[in-house]
Description:
It is a single chain. By secondary structure, the protein is α+β, with helices and mostly antiparallel strands. It has helices spanning 14-38, 75-105, 109-114; strands at residues 41-46, 51-56, 61-66. The protein has a domain at 37-114: 2-Layer Sandwich (Ybab, Chain: A). The protein has three helices and three strands.
Amino acid sequence: xxxxxxxxxxxxxxxxxxxxxxxxxxxxxxxxxxxxxxxxxxxxxxxxxxxxxxxxxxxxxxxxxxxxxxxxxxxxxxxxxxxxxxxxxxxxxxxxxxxxxxxxxxxxxxxxxxxxxxxx
Length: 120
């Protein structure tokens, strides 16, 4: 039960009730989006798949897998392969994050700024 001072009381106003329901639905969608973005992980490979790097959406390392055969590359080439895989993983995470967010910014001012236009 709501009190008379409850800011979410619609007191029978259908339009206000509809607006409140819309707001609550949009808030739930944004919270879901936040969770989906937080779970984004990119994957990159190098040295014919012998080096695999996973990163979070923020670019933090989430995992590195080095096939024992990659050890034959030597330390310099192995380091290059790790960096190459990390870069690919970061690009993959960025792409995945854009795909997650795209439906939410399509047709908004954020979308306009991204594609270089100002308003329509």
